[in-house]
Ribosome maturation factor RimP (Oppiella nova), 163 residues
Amino acid sequence: MKLSNKTQALQDLITPAVQACDVELWGIEFIPQGKRSLLRIYIDKDVVENAEPTINEDGEAELGRGIGVQDCVRVTQQVGEYALEVSSPGWDRPFFQLAQLEKYIGQQVALRLIAAVENRRKFQAKLIAVDLENEFIQVEVEKQQVLEIDSNNIDKANLIFQD
């Protein structure tokens, strides 16, 4: 899950501005489109179960339910002049860092690899383990086959929403 140099530089630049809005920078996508390149920023914050409503600095009620419209507006205002999209990672959240996968062990993920493993570059599999020290994940594919995948071989990873 390696970022391009440009994406890493943008993420390093944006992180302090996003953190100033009391949200977590989940990840970014930079999509070059000539003069109107798109910068997509994913933000997140913990959901507080049974939270009492509070009033924020804008005089609006917050219910502790994760990202709201005001969070997106604050980040957009803080970051500035880009063709910009700010959103929650959503149900099918993309993963940008290996550590983000840890909370989702036991759930289904979609993976697109750079180099094929077992003659495949695309998988939908159950995430079984995340090894941050050795930078790999283990997934269970069909017929209970377990594959070990180097994190630097992951081009794209998303959670598969299941209700």
